[in-house]
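Hi team,

Filling in the usual template for the complex we talked about on Friday. All components are listed, including any nucleic acid strands or ligand strings, so the model treats them as one assembly.

SUBMITTER: L.P.
PURPOSE: interface mapping
COMPONENTS: two
RESIDUES: 757
SEQUENCES:
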Amino acid sequence: MVHQLRTMATKVLTPLTRSKHPHLKRGPFKKLQQEDINYFRTVLGSNQITTETDAHNIDLFNLYRGSSKLCLFPKSTEQVSSILAYCNDQHLAVVPQGGNTGVSGGAVPVFDEIVVNMSKFNRIRAFDDLSGIATVDGGVILEQLDQYLAPKGYTVPLDLGAKGSCQIAGNVSTNAGGLRLLRFGNLHGNVLGLEVVLPDGTILDDLSTLRKNNTGYDLKQLFIGAEGTLGMVTGVSLLTPIRPSSVNVTLVAMSSFEKVLQAYVSAKDHLGEILSAFEFWDMSSIKVVESKMEMEAFPVSQSDAPFYALVETQGSRDDHDKLKLEHYLESLMAEDVVLDGVLAQDDKQMRSLWQWREKIPEAIVACGPALTYDVSMDIRLFKQMVDSTMKHFEQKGLIGNTYQNIIGFGHIGDGNLHIMANMTGFDHNAQEVFDKYVFEWALANKGSISAEHGIGIHKVDYMERSKRGKNQLPLMNKIKNTLDPRGIMNPYKLLPE
Amino acid sequence: MSNPLRIFVPVKRVVDFAVKVRVNPAKTDVDRNVKHSMNPFDEIAVEEAVRIKEAKKAEKKEVEVVAISCGTAKAQETLRTALAMGADRAVHVEVKDDATLQPLAVAKLLKAFTDKEEKKPDLFILGKQAIDDDANQTGQMLAGLLNWPQTTFASKVTIENEALKVTREIDGGLETLETKIPAIITTDLRLNEPRYASLPNIMKAKKKPLVKITPEDLGIDVSPRIQTIKVEEPAKREGGRKVESVDELVDKLKNEAKVL
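RESULT (copied from the run log):
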């Protein structure tokens, strides 16, 4: 999926980030010299250094592009330590990079920062099949870990569309959420230990495999979601849940958003502990997917309902789960909460149903330059937010010429709405205008401008206005300055200058 | 052809095709404590029967689709799926242990059931094979026992009055057969794309009749004629290697792989 995305996306390259953000000035960092490359050659093998940096300078959505001249591929914690110690000493800026599937531009350079890519640092170090705790190198791909766990009867606690490419250290550094947060919680709970290399090269070994360990400040929590600005995550010990043997998926059509909320409340009630995902999307999302992706006919015969929801259950006993699901579906039909729906009868049908939700972002990117937003909000306001956005730009006469395909979808269970749209061409001003509307709406309604996608470079300018930013930026800066006094770790991202 | 046209569809509950099958510790069977679903070729059979029913409805002709499954109590789940896809009624031939139920026994049960039924079937549509045993025998054996024509590996089915026209997938391409009803059809992959079970139909399915009978009721002995001695995993695939020269390649093919 990622490879396809990249081929589609790089037909016309987005302008350089520094041209889009002319107010950004390159920091007082050293410019890369031959002596620096020579040093790295003493630390790394010849196949661990490249000056062919095109693929590492651009993000998945073709929105952010830098001009790094060097990409390094460490294979061990010691190598990462040597790299960072040297860069800190020489005042060379560094961008940590994993699978490069982030959507906020946090994993690509802005200027000529050196890219330190974890892709070759990818061994699964250990797995305890009694506790379900896996210890892995930071470059392990999420799906790779999941495939390792499957025959042992365990599963990774998070699932996202980019699982075939995203790496664990990246997931941790962005506190990735995904489709199963509802069931397994987020990484702050599932990460039991981290091995981090600090900006000065110090190796911080907090790789614990203990479920409970109240012995002082829980420093690893700082690095979870720090987007690579406080250090590089090189090792993770992760609690993995038992793989469910019974999975069921139903897709339902509803006549209004109120019914979506009703279906959700009813799901919590009837399905209880087996509820593992509750995703929703609007009809426009379906139209976009149908237009760009090779899909079979839409499974629900009512294909023009305003809203659809996918409900998934996971458990250890199929007959128990099916009984609960039957009662749930019966009540949905009897109380007219849904217009129609289907229940997957086998694994193939389950995957097909999920495709209708998982292909939405890919479909929008296939339509052209894409705008993507990820807000946390009271779920009662989801429809209102999408409608207001559409109305606002309609009234300005911008729908159809500047913007198209405004769609809303997301994780009802987590209070996380995704709004996506297309722009005609790479118009940075058009992006800023849309950003402003969406972010200000979220802030005005007590929401967050970033539920799970992170700040990266996309939302740095809004940090001072987000609730957390307003109150906590001074302390965040203190911590940043303590750990990274020379400011070499992923500069220009997350924290405003 | 009686009015209505009666189509019997035998369906089998098998390990879901997406499950990574593993051999049990005793090496006597695979681990069956995994997700099960209707045999994919049987889904195609049910779908075809329901499509015939829908097509004939437009011509104001009635069709009855009867789903039958031979197995333990869990076979009823599979029958409910068939009912939710559009079958009219279901018959469960309850067998104590279906791990040893083999195609000949199933064919005999179906023949005995047909003999006993007052309202005789006009067509049997079966999946070409079950994905657990890959036997590809039940349809053919049933045709032999009933002395009916068989049209196997169907990729297209048309019914015109008393005539059945079936296109089959064979090694050389496609072959079209014409025969009279009653007949046996076994389905191949490209015959159709099975529909999803819709919620309204799942609810309706609960009210459709499901009758339970036993092999004793039909006077059939279902004990297996073939015994499975051992079940093993295939040898692990060894990694490939690069060679430096043609001579080295020939040497390895001769002395290591022993294929020259």
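MY TAKE: The two ends of chain A are 36 Å apart (CA to CA). Residues 1-5 of chain A have pLDDT under 50 and may be disordered.

Thanks, L.
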